[in-house]
Structure formats: structure tokens, C-alpha cells
Amino acid sequence: MDRLATNPAIKSSDFRRFGLILTYGALITFGILTLIPITWLLVGSFKTNEDFFGHLFLPLGEGLFGVAWDRLTLAHYWKLFSELEFGNYVMNSIFLASVTSALATFVAALGGYALAKFRFKGRWLITALVLAAIIIPGPLLIAPIYDLLYHLDLLNTYTGLILPAMGPAFGIFLFRQAMLNAVPIDMLEAARIDGCGEFRIFFSIVIPIVRPMIGAFLLITFLGTWNNFIGPQVILQDESKFPLSVAIAQLRGIYSTDYGMISAGTIVSIAPVMVIFLLLQKEFITGLTGGAVKG
Amino acid sequence: MKRPFSPYPLWTPFAFLAPFLVVFAVFLVYPLLQSVILSLEQTFGPQHKTFVYFHNFSQLLQDPLFFKALMNTAIFSGASVLVQMPLSLGLALFLNRPDIRGRAFFRLIFFSPSLVGAVFVGVMFGIIFGKRTGLLNIVLNRLIGFNLDFPWLQEYVMVSLILASLWMWTGFNMIYFLAALQNVDKDLEEASKIDGAGPWDRFIHVTLPAIRPVAGFVVLLSIIGSFQLFELPYLLLNNSAGVENKGLTIVMYLYQTGFETGDLGYASAIGWILAIILIGLAIIQRRLSRTEGI
């Protein structure tokens, strides 16, 4: 390659331009490959089932740009929300994800603060336990937690689904790391000398400092709950309590050949998350990569 | 810095930790201990339990289905690392060129699939890999006259799974590599340029050693993730393990024995084997990164 560049007939700027075109080509190709599945699904959710088979993307015909716009339909969405009561599942998902993420973030911020800014007996033991808990694979706990919820009479309740998520070991660790250096001890002590209560210090001094981490952790917990399947699938029995993840699995089973309908259901399930992501990309990337990568 | 006096009431940190500790004890420590006991029991639903010592484990070691699940998971895990890592790294290298415009835009697009839950990705690709109506067969058919009835989800489950997870995670891993590349020592790169090293030599001797720790971490994350694979194949194959259990994974088998057969004991034993595998992998990764002096 470099021997080429030393040939006086080929300028190195040409060579660089060629490399740049190649790079853009690769990036754009992969970008298109990434977007095609979702685009196809989105278009498919507006097509009648005949057109779903007959046309790859938009149905071709007489309209603007050679597309038969009049053949597109909202029927799948209509059926989804009227007959199948999908609005109910959307609300369930929103409720579960909001409550879980708000509570888990609050518990994690409180605990992380205690581990980062106080000296007390047992601090290292608790920190070690938290770290050990991060390593434990979730699936190991499914059976014993199901057993425990059965004995606590919490199966088929949201309480049984939300409570186990209130001990977010990873979150405690994240907040501890975030607060270790960012929260100045002098500031806390000055507030104490001024006679501030401990909880007031926490809410008025500590929380504003770690606001970015709060946003990031809220988001990833929301996303994790939204996308969680095995938990609600195992714990909930009443169809009226299902979140979207479980509802879509049911829909796929029952309407396995009604592709337009399944596409519409999937779009409804992923659209809210995508919109939130577009609005808050930075927090998402920081949160999902555990703060390792700034968004 | 030891402080002579404590300016806050002694109970303060415990008050802050209380909510976490209560939930941690009840819903993590207790279930963990319980799962040890459960794995030594044969259960029928949560009520009927008989103590069977290590019967579950000896049973597992002779269980052809469990070995099938183990093999499937291991193959998927290895293949997805081998295919995905070079792709993620390649994309990151492309995006890292200083003269690239629209870096944030590309990053946004590549990253977005990892936000879609595995359940929804499974449903999506279940339609895409379908016979006759699936996007993949139709496109391949128009391009190269490919067989419209090609049975992706019946015969080539592993390939379908790897493709779907490639779509989901390549961009996510790329973010890590990109962050690592942006921390590569610029002076070292300049120096090697002046010494007349070509782009390939520079990549091998400067870039790769610098991103090695991140690469190790990303590989470990990928393997841990692959070993917990469940929703993606389960939904891809329409709430099943597929024809001849071609898509059966460890966690899927755990789910089926625990909640379709109702044997929570056997499920716990599977969970412990999974935990031992994952902790073993994490220890190996730490050892490896330490011997390299990182």
C-alpha cells in the first residue's frame, strides 16, 4: 500500500480520498443494513396481509412516487388497540418500568452515598457483597425467587415483580463510584455545621451533583424493565396484568401468520423506547456502558 | 485521612443503606441460599419437595437435552465472538478516522438496535427469516435467485440466531472499541508515522496493544451475555426450542424445566452450573489480563 503512495504518479491525496470513499461506503452500507429490518417492519405494519406477501416494501401503484398510498391501512393498529386491548399492555409496561426505575434509582442513590461518604463498621463487607452480587447471573435466581414469592403470596402481583428489583447491586456500585470523588466532604461538613439535617444534605447537595448519573441509571433501569420478559412471564398469570414483552410473545403464538398484526404490535412495543433514546442519547450511552463510555 | 470525631449521628449511613439492605437480604441473599437447597431437591411446583442429595446434578450430567443446550450455547457464544468482534472493531476503526463527518449520526444508528429488547428482536427476525414472506429470502431471491422456501428457522437456527444477535449487538460493542481508540496515545502514533511505519504496522504494534484490555472486557461481556441467551431464540422460534431442539439454550432449558415441568429443583441445579461456568470465565479473563501485565 505504501509503495503505491511513493509512486510519484499517484498523489497521496488521491490515495487518501480513495480510502475515505471506502470508509464512507462501509459505514453507509452497515447503516442501511441496520435500518432495513425496522423500516421493513414499520412499512409492513401499514400493509394489508395480501400486500405483505405481494410487495417487498411499499405497495407499488398509481400514486405519488409510484406508490399505491391508498392501499396502506391502519387496520392492524385499529384491531390491536380495539379488539386486543393493546393500550392496556402499553400502560402496564409504562407503569412497571416507571415505578421500578424510580424506586430502584432512589434506593441505589441512597445506598451508594452511604458507601461512598461515610466511615462505619461493615462498610467494606457490604461493598464486597455488592460486588459479589453483580457477578451472580440473574437466571440462577429465577426459581428460588418464584418459590419465595409463592410463599409470600405475591405471585401474580406487581409488588412481586417490583420488589426484587429494589436491591440494585450494580446501581449501588455505580453511585458509589460517581460520588467518591464528585461529592466534596468539606461541603457536607460545612452544611452539618450550619445545622442541616442529613437527609436535607442528601437532597439539596448530593443529588444535584450526581444528576447525570441519576438520569443515566433511571434510563437503563427503565429500559431493562421494559424489555424484561422472563420475570413477568413467570410471575404474572392474569392477562390483564401483562406488559408488552409478554403480550407480544402471546400475540406471536396466536396470530403466527398474521404478519401485519405482529409487525404493528412490535412497532408499538419498541417505538416508545426509540423516541426516548433519540431525545436522551447521551445519558443512554453513559448508562448502558456503566459510565465507562461518556455519551 | 482518619477523622478524630464523627460529625454525624452514628446511625446515618445505616439509615441510607436500610432500604437496599432489606431487599438485598430478602430477595438476593436468601434466594441464593435457597437455590442451593432447591438444587438438592426434586420439586413439583413450589409445594412438593423431596430431598434427593446430588441426584439433580448426576441426572444433569447424563441428560442429553442439557448437553444439547450446553453445546448450542457454547457454539453460539464462540461464533458470535469470532464474527462480531472483528466487525465491531472494524466499524470503530472506520468511525475513528479524524476526517469522518457525521460521526455522531453513524454512532446513533449503529447503537440503536441494542435498545430493542431481545423479545422484540426475536419476533422481528422471526418474520424476517420466514419462508416465502420473509424479507431475507425475498431479497436474496431477487438478487441471486435464491430459494424462496429456504428454511432458516427450521434447519439453520444457529446461523439465524447469530445474524439476529449481530444486528443487535455489533454497534453496542463498537461504542466500547471507539472509546478505547480515542484513548490511544497520539504521540506514539505520530512517532511511528515519522519512523515510516505503514498503516498496517501501526495497527498491529500501536493500536492493538493499546485497546487490548478493552477488547478482553468486551469479549467477556459478550460471552457472559451469550451464555444467558433465552428470549431471542425462544421468540425467534415462536415460543419453542425449535425443530429437534436446535435452538435450545441453557436458560431456555432452565425455564422449561422450572416453569413448564414445574421442577424448581432441577432448574436451580441448571442455574448453578451456569453460574459456575460464568464465574470460571470471569476468573480466566482476569488471569489472562493480569499475565499480560495490564
Automatic annotation (TrEMBL), chain A:
Main location: membrane
Cell location: Cell membrane
Membrane protein topology class: Multi-pass membrane protein
Keywords, in A-Z order: Cell membrane, Membrane, Transmembrane, Transmembrane helix, Transport
One of the protein's GO biological processes: transmembrane transport
Transmembrane residue ranges: 20-43, 89-112, 124-146, 158-180, 201-223, 259-280
GO terms for cellular component: plasma membrane
Domain of life (superkingdom): Bacteria
Ranges of residues in domain ABC transmembrane type-1: 90-280
InterPro entries: MetI-like (IPR000515), MetI-like_sf (IPR035906)
UniProt-listed Pfam families: BPD_transp_1 (PF00528)
Keyword Methyltransferase carried by entry: no
Similarity field: Belongs to the binding-protein-dependent transport system permease family.
Name of the protein described by the UniProt record: Carbohydrate ABC transporter permease
Organism in which the protein naturally occurs: Oceanipulchritudo coccoides
TrEMBL record, chain B:
Domain ABC transmembrane type-1: 70-285
GO biological process annotation, one example: transmembrane transport
A GO CC term attached to the entry: plasma membrane
Localization annotation: Cell membrane
A Pfam entry, by short name: BPD_transp_1
Gene3D superfamilies attached to this UniProt entry: MetI-like (1.10.3720.10)
CDD domains: TM_PBP2
Top-level taxonomic group: Bacteria
Membrane topology: Multi-pass membrane protein
Residue ranges crossing the lipid bilayer per the database entry: 12-33, 74-96, 108-129, 156-179, 210-230, 264-284
Key words, A-Z: Cell membrane, Membrane, Transmembrane, Transmembrane helix, Transport
InterPro entries linked to this entry: MetI-like, MetI-like_sf, UgpAE/MalFG_permease
Principal cellular location given in the protein's record: membrane
SUPFAM superfamilies given in the database record: MetI-like
Family: Belongs to the binding-protein-dependent transport system permease family.
Descriptive protein name: Sugar ABC transporter permease
Species: Oceanipulchritudo coccoides
